[in-house]
Amino acid sequence: MGFLAGKKLLITGVLSNRSIAYGIAKACHAQGAELAFSYVGERFKDRITEFAADFDSKLIFDCDVGSDEQINQMFTDLSASWPTFDGFVHSIGFAPREAIAGDFLEGLNRESFRIAHDISAYSFPAMAKAALPYLNPKSALLTLTYLGALRVLPNYNTMGLAKASLEASVRYLAESLGNKGTGMRVNGISAGPIKTLAASGIKDFGKMLKATAASPIRRNVTIEDVGNVAAFLLSDLAGGVSAEITYVDGGFSQVVGGITDPAEA
Ligand code: NAD
């Protein structure tokens, strides 16, 4: 029996089998969790049905997190199968292309700023608010963030601002859910770069991958690396961890600018 046996978790953000959320689903399923999935767009329904079947699930919900109505509807619909559940993974990010390319100021405009923050940051606490009536004691919420929230990284630009907001929401949410006294927790994982559909929208993403391949573990992280840490954070094994951003980046964030790859010396 795995350490997530008996837990019911909603996983958002599976778009392909390269998605970070797919790696998280894999690890949670291996540890015995029951899973439900959300996706966005009718055209992906068949694909997500197949992914859900990979994890013995028939529960899939079409939900664009840009709509409060759709977020509320998703949790109402989920409650028909699961009257209560044990948490969710928010693995969702989007910014218009001009906001994640080239010079920060050149790409800046009010509308792309709004969209990046709405979809990539606001949606996490918004989902928590809508899910709250259905969350069991000791529920755990998890989101995915990136080092660009803290440091200036080429091209990440407006998405860095949205991720900074998302990380702050992890802390405020942890307090807000924690003060209900039922042991609910909220965490984020800051993942190193992984080639996914969302990541390929960032200009020169290949350069980011190359730079982090020289991290202390001398390779890029995988969706399995992230999935395993996510499964732990979603489990009662991590009952003492909340309001935290855990780095799954091979140590890159700790040595930025100070690394020498012996192979290149
Ligand atoms: P991905 O493209 O596989 O997943 C992104 C997901 O966001 C997709 O499933 C997409 O459908 C969903 N999404 C976008 N707009 C949405 C909306 N309006 N409503 C609902 N869902 C929406 O890419 P990924 O890299 O697995 O991204 C998952 C998360 O991980 C994102 O928050 C991303 O910023 C974060 N992250 C990725 C990396 C990386 O290098 N890939 C690194 C650190 C953090």
What's the topology here?
Blueprint: E1 8-12, H1 20-30, E2 34-39, H2 45-54, E3 60-62, H3 68-81, E4 85-90, H4 104-107, H5 110-131, E5 135-145, H6 157-178, E6 185-191, H7 205-212, H8 223-234, E7 244-248, H9 252-255
Parallel strand pairs: 1-2, 1-4, 2-3, 4-5, 5-6, 6-7
Oligomer: single chain
- Treating each run of at least 4 consecutive H or I residues as one helix, how many helices? 9
Strand content: 15-25%
Instruction: Tell me what the CATH architecture is.
Output: 3-Layer(aba) Sandwich
The rounded Rg comes to: 18 Å
Helix content: 40-55%
The bound ligands are: nicotinamide-adenine-dinucleotide
- Which CATH top level class fits? Alpha Beta
Widest beta sheet: strand line-up: 3-2-1-4-5-6-7
Number of domains: 1
Largest beta-sheet characterization = 7 strands, parallel
CATH superfamily: NAD(P)-binding Rossmann-like Domain
Catalytic activity: a 2,3-saturated acyl-[ACP] + NAD(+) = a (2E)-enoyl-[ACP] + NADH + H(+)
Pfam family, one: adh_short_C2
Enzyme class: oxidoreductase
Protein name: Enoyl-[acyl-carrier-protein] reductase [NADH]
